[in-house]
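Quarterly update from the structural biology core.
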Amino acid sequence: MNVPTVGRPQWVRSVVIAVLAVLFVVGSWTGVAWATASHGPDRGGTPVALARVKSCERLGPISRGGIGFYWICVADVTPVGSTTRSVRFDLDELTPDDFGKAVPVVGWETDFQRDVVKRKMPSWVPALVVLLLVFLGWAERRRLRRLRRPVVHHPADVRLTEPVRVPNPPAAGSPDRGASVISPAEWSPRRYWRTAGALVAVGGVIAALALPLDDPESRTALFTLAGFGFAAPVWLICCTPRWYRKSSHSAQLIISAEGISWKRRRREEFFALAWPDLAEVRVLTVTHDPLTLRVVDLLPVDQEAPERRPELRRFWQIGAKLGVYRLPGEPRTVRVPEAFSDAAIGQVRAAMAVFRPDLFREYAAGVAAGAPPTPITRGAT
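Predicted structure, tokenized:
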């Protein structure tokens, strides 16, 4: 349902997603290494060079090949018409089974590979890729159809308690500045650095585990994983609203000198209200137990706005969900259909203080059961 929603953190789901993400990364890494290490029979004909194995080392279970065991061998390579040199071969290119054999190799200088017949791609691989793409397309279509369903106005389970007025912030800044683009899920710097710090700490633990290892391959693999943790402050920006809120595909509340607009392309949502069309811009914060819901309501001057503006109908007097409770919608109000984070509300305050502080109001409320909804009076102070 397309209404602002806040629920209890689903820690089990988060842990499962994190574990699946780790398994996907490690599995992909292992799969690529396995495909690289697999080779066909030796190619016939006159070899460019011959290799004779001198020593082999067993790698695993953790190495640059991911999870698994591989052989790394050092061999004397003698190119045709050139001198012999010692070369270290890659995963499973040479094995202990090649001791005492002259193995054909190709390459130059110190970069040689086993001269083998390239394996043909199994016929089931393209079919599997096509089926996967079809499944992803079907799943995305179902998701978009679900997101674009019209809002269902369920009766409220609880009422809002008497609202408490929160003072307006003082006006600041210049009204001529550019538009303020706000993502409802905007992360605060504290949350961002708390998450990044935890990932950096995990990277430090992995690096500490890698230091005492004697196996250079295992140590390299663990240091690579640790590097992802140490780089978290950089790549985390691309995975949070601190970066993608600027994308045209993200949900955006835009406050400018002309008015307020909301757009979310993936749900085909868009509306815009100019300042002369607005009587009030309201932030409502509802708290119950450990949960906090923050919504932005826009009160048009014209109370018949949905009749004249069809794009406003799906946002007209919609409610919200706080945990297991359905909250009432505000009469004659356009509600932005997304719950806002504390950091995002701070940006709304700052933008309204610059452009139209006279229209901005803030309220706080709780929830109580067994009574009809208590609306907030238009223009109340």
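The chain has three domains: 39-114, 158-183+249-369, 189-239.
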